[in-house]
């Protein structure tokens, strides 16, 4: 089964939503995005391709989000399994909001300078404050992620910045910190912003082995030791923390947002 | 108008889809995500909150994606404007795929180790190969983004890695490169992977001023000069390129994916 995500924009909405729908089904599918389909000719060309695939006996399914009625009609006619993702909901929501839908409004929305800047600033901030490289800007941080090396700090920092425009710093806890009593001095002024990540020692061993095989750094014993120490710090200092072993970056980020009551800096 | 995105998972699907729907309407709304709503008690608590807001005369609208029928029923009963985002489409898609929807399948999907790793690897690769800091791994890159400082290389690299698991390097073109003839030697072996970013000089001036006001680096003249030079290189060397001035990171990334025929390394 071949699944197309077709859109006059990035097709990200069709992709995210369509993929979520498909995740309810235990089927193997091939996915392909068709973004920026904005002309009648492109629509006809795409339908021609669909028909050829149908004639070859390939099953295809199309999720689309298209504003232009003429183009939408062509896509709908091209496949018996074409789903207009906005189709059924637009009317009731018009009613709920009490204003008519304006297809053109969406394009205008595509890019809000302010929003864009807040996200890019946050990404640059996350990069500049990754892995404790620069601790002098911790006061700017909305959240400071703690954890041992390879427990998920950096991807989570970048995801929070990219998706939500949240200024995220992260600080790697290591043996120096384990040796000293209480929190590292640089973190003490920022207690309310601290959030800990932890991970199953065996999983950490796997990840570190992929990076530096047969090293002390990657040894099961070292991984166990570091995780024991870091979780002890979280408990002693009453720092909220999360085990990332079975979570995707999206799941980690949204759990952190919820627990720390962070609000996106973008519309 | 207050909009809630409610889910038994991250709520990202509800958020992306709901926000796309709302972008058709020229209304100011306050958005709030309610992720990981997985119990009847949580659902009742949320509905209670909705009712209080209704009584205060606040308008609320709820987009939700919930697998459990009992919890779903509670959410649906809680608000006259609750929209089950999967509701209308699941049945037809069951028919199209010829297999029944399995709510539980989704959770299993939540996190695929292989997929996760490919994305984290790609993010780590993008970080290690950001801004030309390490050119020795260019042969591993699926794409190498070119551009002057602040033209959007880094956020695009990270987005491509995070969202699509694509190993993206980037190389900043600067005066040394403008002075020399032809492509920088380090790029020549990778011609097929090169993609250029450019930006309106005035916008570049704005961005650089925010970073280093009243510097030569940020001066309108320097920005114009660098953009002229970089676009000349793209044209001479027949490197495909894109103007990022009015595009979001998502739009840049999906256009690059489409033009370079890149395929996501994740399901």
TrEMBL record, chains A, B:
Enzyme class name: transferase
Binding residues for ADP: 147-154
Coiled-coil ranges from the UniProt annotation: none
Catalytic activity, as annotated: [pyruvate, water dikinase]-phosphate + phosphate + H(+) = [pyruvate, water dikinase] + diphosphate; [pyruvate, water dikinase] + ADP = [pyruvate, water dikinase]-phosphate + AMP + H(+)
Keywords: Kinase, Nucleotide-binding, Pyruvate, Serine/threonine-protein kinase, Transferase
Keyword Nucleotidyltransferase tagged: no
Keyword DNA repair set for record: no
Protein family (similarity comment): Belongs to the pyruvate, phosphate/water dikinase regulatory protein family. PSRP subfamily.
Its job: Bifunctional serine/threonine kinase and phosphorylase involved in the regulation of the phosphoenolpyruvate synthase (PEPS) by catalyzing its phosphorylation/dephosphorylation.
Protein's name according to its UniProt entry: Putative phosphoenolpyruvate synthase regulatory protein
């Amino acid at each position: 089964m071949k699944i197309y995500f077709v859109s006059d924009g990035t097709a990200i909405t069709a992709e995210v939503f369509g993929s979520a729908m498909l995740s309810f089904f235990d089927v193997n599918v091939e996915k392909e995005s068709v973004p920026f389909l904005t002309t009648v000719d492109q629509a006809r060309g795409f339908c021609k391709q669909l028909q050829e695939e149908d004639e070859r006996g390939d099953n295809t399914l199309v999720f689309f989000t298209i504003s232009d009625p003429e183009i939408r009609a062509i896509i709908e006619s091209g496949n018996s399994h074409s789903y207009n993702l906005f189709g059924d909901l637009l009317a009731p929501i018009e009613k709920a909001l009490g204003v008519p839908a304006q297809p053109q409004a969406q394009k205008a929305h595509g890019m809000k300078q302010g929003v864009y800047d807040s996200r890019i600033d946050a990404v640059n901030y996350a990069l500049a404050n990754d892995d404790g490289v620069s601790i002098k800007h911790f006061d700017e941080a909305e959240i400071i992620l703690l954890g041992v090396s390879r427990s998920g700090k950096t991807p989570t920092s970048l995801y929070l910045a990219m998706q939500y425009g949240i200024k995220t710093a992260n600080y790697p806890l290591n043996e120096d910190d384990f040796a000293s009593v209480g929190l590292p001095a640089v973190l003490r002024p920022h207690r309310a912003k601290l959030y800990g990540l932890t991970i199953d020692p065996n999983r950490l061993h796997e990840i570190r082995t992929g990076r530096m095989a047969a090293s002390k750094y990657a040894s099961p014993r070292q991984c166990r030791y570091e995780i024991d120490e870091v979780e002890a710090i979280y408990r002693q200092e009453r720092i909220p923390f999360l085990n990332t072993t079975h979570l995707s970056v999206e799941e980690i980020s949204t759990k952190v947002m919820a627990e720390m009551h962070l609000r996106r800096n973008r519309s």
